[in-house]
Amino acid sequence: MQPFSSHTAVAAPLLRDDINTDQIAPVMHGRDLKEDYKVTLFYRARRRDDGSEDPDFILNKPQFRDAGILVTGNNFGAGSSRESAVWAMVANNIRVIVAKSFADIYRENCLQNGVLPIVLTAQEADDLTARVVAANGAAPFTVDLVSQRISGPGGAEMPFDIAAADRIRLLEGLDDIGLTLKHMNEIASWEQRIAAAQPWLQTAKDSR
Amino acid sequence: MPRTLFDKIWDLHLVGQRADGRDLLYIDRHVLHELHAHHGFAYLQKQQRKVHRPDLTFAVQDHTVATKPGRDDDTNPTGAAFIKAMREGTRRNGIRLFDVGDPEQGISHVVAPEVGIVLPGATHAVPDSHASTVGGLGALAFGCGTTEMTHVLATQVMALKRPKRMRARLDGRLGAHVSSKDVALRLIAELGVAGARGYAVEYGGSAILAMPIEQRMTLCNLNIEMGGRSGFVAPDDATFAWLAGRPYAPQGAMWDRALEHWRTLITDDDAAFDREVVLDCHALEPQITWGTDPSQVVGISGRVPEPATLDASRRPAAESAFAYMGLQPGTALLGLPVNRVFIGSCTNSRLPDLEVAAAVVRGRRVAAGVAAMVVPGSSTVKREAEAAGLDRVFRDAGFFWGESGCSMCAGGNGDRGAPGERIVSTTNRNFENRQGPKTRTHLASPATAAASAIAGRIADVRQVLAGAA
Ligand code: SF4
Known about the structure:
The complex is a heterodimer.
Chain A: E1 6-9, E2 11-14, H1 21-24, H2 37-40, E3 69-72, H3 84-91, E4 96-99, H4 104-112, E5 116-119, H5 122-135, E6 141-144, E7 149-151, E8 158-159, H6 164-172, H7 176-181, H8 184-197
Parallel strand pairs in A: 2-3, 3-4, 4-5
Antiparallel strand pairs in A: 1-6, 6-7, 7-8
Chain B: H1 5-13, E1 14-17, E2 23-26, E3 29-33, H2 34-46, E4 57-60, H3 80-93, E5 96-98, H4 108-114, E6 123-126, E7 140-143, H5 146-155, E8 157-160, E9 164-171, H6 180-191, E10 199-204, H7 206-209, H8 213-221, E11 230-233, H9 237-243, H10 252-262, E12 275-280, E13 287-289, E14 297-299, H11 315-325, E15 340-343, H12 351-361, E16 371-374, H13 379-387, H14 390-397, E17 400-401, E18 422-425, E19 440-443, H15 446-455, H16 461-465
Parallel strand pairs in B: 3-4, 3-6, 4-5, 6-7, 9-10, 9-12, 10-11, 15-16, 15-18, 16-17, 18-19
Antiparallel strand pairs in B: 1-2, 2-8, 13-14
The complex binds iron/sulfur cluster.
Iron/sulfur cluster is lined by residues 62-63, 107, 109, 128, 130, 345-346, 406, 409-410, 428 of chain B.
């Protein structure tokens, strides 16, 4: 996984609550196993009914085309568990999402892919949103995970909280599976213990 | 110290703690589907790793399979690559696949309980957010992302933060033609789409005790629509009776031993929950969504809400839903013309769901101009329904009767509505464009969906059956 220490980019405001994974990464038709996640991101929202680009959609506006930070409302990433809704962010170099809250699985999927999910209080989020709207893409914001600060036009540096373990994982780009593989001995001894205590859990055979 | 059932299951499955503080939770059963499986297999192959427990891992073709009678891999051209990649990956890794054409193929959340892969007190993972459907049998299930799925393939554990505990007590007797779908929709309306976020939810109360297992599964299926990753019902005699004799469940002496343990799977008196909610169900009428998220719900006799009556935080979403759904505040739901009806999905496609719908449809005709479709949740459900003659009831009434799969739930197999169509659907998400671009989905129970197909407009099943609609 790509480590994350600091990210400087234009920030775009997505001023809605409950933006769901069907919106972020709609199930694509005519797809194959190698989906182009750059195109997937907000596929429908980016387009008008006739398929042409919708100039009103925020990420289609010239000043936000290269946005690398999203600032949004409550419950971002609700809906399905599809990880393409995070891969689509990575493919577009969006490495930070600031929200009032995230859906659980979406937040996990961010951490798995080197995307920093920042949760701010409603007040802080509103302040940052006001600054992002005022900046209107003219100057970038910087999100620094080492110092846990957001800086940019229109105000002072803003501290943010993140669980220490999540921070380390992003900073070091730790591979989640690699972390767990260090515990294979414990896993094996759990299996042994349960095979004796509750053997039905350790076997799943067709009895026919 | 008194413990909740959630804590009992969690503690038993706790393998250890990782350096980053996450609990490693053993996963007893892992079920894959073709939309995500190929990513995991490709990763393992690249890293030259094996699936740690192929014998506890299962795979089902569901999201992209066609529903057309006589289907094969290529009937839905966009599904073929996924179907074949999963077949190849499961063969290479020695995983039991419920393939296209297998007599037990179906939607993973329907198949796994049906064949006895799911057990009370067991942990369960599926790379799909509706994993906790199987909580209806007292299993603790987690929907997961693709990387998490691969993690389980490689290690058979998930690295999780322990959620908080919520108890949802559902009291009272459900009225005639009111089901757990209606209860779940009302609960989501009350708690909101993020109301259970961060919690594992234990459902209890007299309404639950009276519910057949399939209805408990419907309830647990919709848990994610209020943001909860895991939701379950403590197992009881009804659960054990339902499970007994299923092929992958323990048999003989092992069954007796398991049963003895399963009877201890209850929350202790005085165990503490972080949050408790109570819903009185006794006067509940059938429920239906009017908007574009599953919390935008009214009783069937209700009206699209006036923004002023809504909590300020819910107003912006409501405003955009009015426009998308083509509805004005104050409009009655009853009587809205319907173009399409879908009965199916992991929410409502089990045999009792189809029986309820068939009872409404029997001897009646789908209204002119309505495209109505029933897709059984599994090939087993389909066979059983056919043995009971339900397929004839539906076909005679003018329904399409399909092969099992996810179908129009998310349209991943090409079954979709046309732009602007109003659809009454027994599925779980009414998000914009979910059932096809610009489609307008109203979520409801199988009874309400069947009644609406007959009436050609959104209907109250009680009136349709009374001959009054
Ligand atoms: S029926 Fe729908 S919600 Fe259920 S697994 Fe299939 S696509 Fe997902």
